[in-house]
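Reopening this ticket.

The earlier resolution said the output was attached, but the attachment link was broken on my side. Pasting everything inline this time so it's all in one place.
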Amino acid sequence: MKNAIDWDSNRTFSVWRYGIGHSQLLLASEETATEAGLGVHFEAVEYMRLIRTFKKLRITTADERQIHEVETSGTLAHTIRPLLVLALHHDNGVGLIACSRLRIGQFHGLPTTDFDTLHLHSTATR
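Inline output:
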C-alpha cells in the first residue's frame, strides 16, 4: 500500500484530550525521568472507536475490512475531506480512527499538541 503507516511504541498511551470544536484527539504517554513525553495528535477526526488506555500502541494504515467498517458506519456521509483511516493496535484488540492528519511528537511537561513533531502523515487512504 502506497504511503502505508506503521508506527509503534512500547509505552502506555491514554486519551488526554478531545476537542469537539476542531475534532482533535490527543493520546499521550507521560514524560519519564529519561524520556520526553510522546503525543499522538489526530486532526479533523470524523470517526473513532477506541478505548481509554493503550499499552504497547501500534498505529497502522487500516486494512480493507476496517476501512469498510468505517465507511459503512453512517458517520462519514457529510465528509468531503480525504481521510486517513488508521488502526490502533493494543493488547486488547484494535481501535479505529478516521482523520485528516496524524502527527506524533515529543513534549516536556504536560501533554500538549504544541510538540516537536517526529512523524507527520496526511496522505489519505480514503
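Reporter confirms the inline version is readable. The CA atoms of residues 47 and 98 lie 5 Å apart. The chain has a mean pLDDT of 86.
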